[in-house]
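Order emerges. For instance:

***
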Amino acid sequence: MKIKTPGWKDAAALFVGCVVAAVIFEVFLRLYNPIHFTVRGDNITLPANESFKIENPNIHNLDKLITVRRNSIGFRGAEPPANLTGYISIVAVGGSTTECFYISDGKTWTDLLGDKLRNNFNHIWINNAGLAGHSTAGHYILMKNYITRLRPKVALFLVGANDIQKTGASADELKIVSKATSLVNYLATKSETVYLLQNLYRYREAGKRHLYTEPFNVYEEKPLVITAPEMANLKQQAQMGHASALKAYGERLNRLLDITINSSIVPVLITQPILYGNAIDNSSGVNLGTIKFGGNLNGELMWHMIEMYNDVTRKTAVQRNVFIIDLSRELSKDSSYYYDWLHYSNAGAVYIADIIYKDLCPFLREKYPEAATGKCP
């Protein structure tokens, strides 16, 4: 029996069918796209005037019903007043540890920080511009497209975690990268299908860097004990292996400071804390240094990696004469302050607000003495 091989007519029919399906899918997404991403091409789109209610049956140190609202700018917090120039206006920029998506309105560290600062200053306005998964590359776009136009007096940058192993572009390299990716980015601004596929790809790549959050119990985590000589060798390897990413992070951080300072906005850098480290958990007594992380990392090694990027933040602050709050070193290693290895619980947000307030209040008092109403702690 002779087997019929597909001819050009069959191939053409298949091609037409795929095109029709793609058109139908594109039309569907234009009418109703159930998934919202904050990045479209090389730009950021913010979900303004949106509210969420999230049921939380599992994470014990967060609200059971979490409420999240974004204002008309697309940030978390109060609407900007009409006379914003008359306020000490502050915008917090960062990834998920700034956004605090699973902490209810009024309970994030930015909300609590604002409440505290109002005891010391007249006319404080603070907004939370954190976006989960965003690195300093995304922060730069956010500054350029939104925050520099808003012109707050101060920008707080809690950065570092999402820049791990990110080799992305310096100011000069960005011109080359943007040309190489311009077609995809252009299509993403025109096509809902390309927009969806591009962001699903970015979402998958973020997952490779362990950026997703899952509740955990330190008692249930498996240990990975590494001998002192082996740990010293692994730390040296990490420093060498991350050299290009650390250099690129420093370049992006400087570029972020450039656009901030050139827009007459005062930058404040904040180092990134994590639960893991060469320490004993204050709440459980578990050794946080020997908890296994991923395939061949443990808590001590993961802490070392985060600190490599925090060291770049510290060094940049000194070089640029920028005020820095070393939250990474000031926040105690205590699992009650976290609901996973990186993200804060309600209690953690309270403690973080206390730390930042203690350091930031005197700095603001020196900058804006005319607005001060009470002594700082």
Residues 55 and 207 are 23 Å apart (CA to CA). Confidence is low (pLDDT under 50) at residues 35-41, 169-186, 205-213.
